[in-house]
Design a protein that fits this description.
With 177 residues, this protein is an alpha+beta fold. The chain is built from three helices and seven strands; from the N terminus they run H-E-E-H-H-E-E-E-E-E. It has a five-stranded mixed barrel with strand order 3-4-5-7-6. Strands 1-2 form a two-stranded antiparallel ribbon.
Length: 177
């Protein structure tokens, strides 16, 4: 049994190191092995994947090796190794989920601000005579944009304006609220 723990510990350690190196050099692939009728993938949270299985075996194997002389009951040792393996598995799954959240694209795109309310920073002359400036907040960041209006009257500084459309680039069309 000790030999089995050693084999699991060494093989999983080698695979773990290879996975870590592959992750750092950009060659990273993970496969979801939750096939069949069972669905282990809850909202993108991969509990069962190659990485989590390797971490389970890593925790299981090294716990068996390290506590072989300390815990005389082999059943108790196996239960402890199983618990530690599950802790490793769920911890790496949680860490991977947090890392995947960093992968979101929060690039500012003017199309995403149509319909939002902005503050007029520099007055906007009416009938698209010239541009003014607005300040709008999107996803926690503030952006200053050039703005035009089809309103006949000038929209004064400090007013609220609704963004109606994107005219060109980062220039938007607004109307006074």
């Amino acid at each position: 049994m000790l030999q089995g723990y050693w084999i699991l510990a060494i093989v999983s350690s080698v695979v773990f190191v290879i996975q870590a190196i592959a992750t750092f050099v950009g060659f990273d692939a993970d496969t979801d092995v939750s096939g069949g009728d069972a669905d282990f993938d809850a909202d993108g949270f991969h509990i069962v994947s190659i990485k989590t299985i390797v971490c389970f075996i890593l925790g299981f194997g090294w716990t068996g090796v390290l506590f072989w002389d300390t815990i005389e009951s082999r059943i108790l040792l196996s239960i402890l190794a199983l618990v530690v393996g599950l802790i490793f598995m769920f911890t790496i799954a949680l860490l991977l989920r947090w890392v995947m959240k960093l992968d979101k694209d929060n690039t500012f795109k003017t199309e995403n601000i149509v319909g939002l309310v902005a503050d007029v920073y520099l007055r906007i002359p009416g009938s698209r005579k010239e541009t003014g400036k607005i300040i709008v907040s999107l996803n926690g960041s503030v952006h200053e944009l050039e703005a035009l209006t089809d309103d006949t009257e000038t929209i004064p500084t400090g007013s609220k304006a609704e963004i109606v459309a994107v005219v060109k680039g980062s220039t938007v069309l607004v109307k006074k609220i």
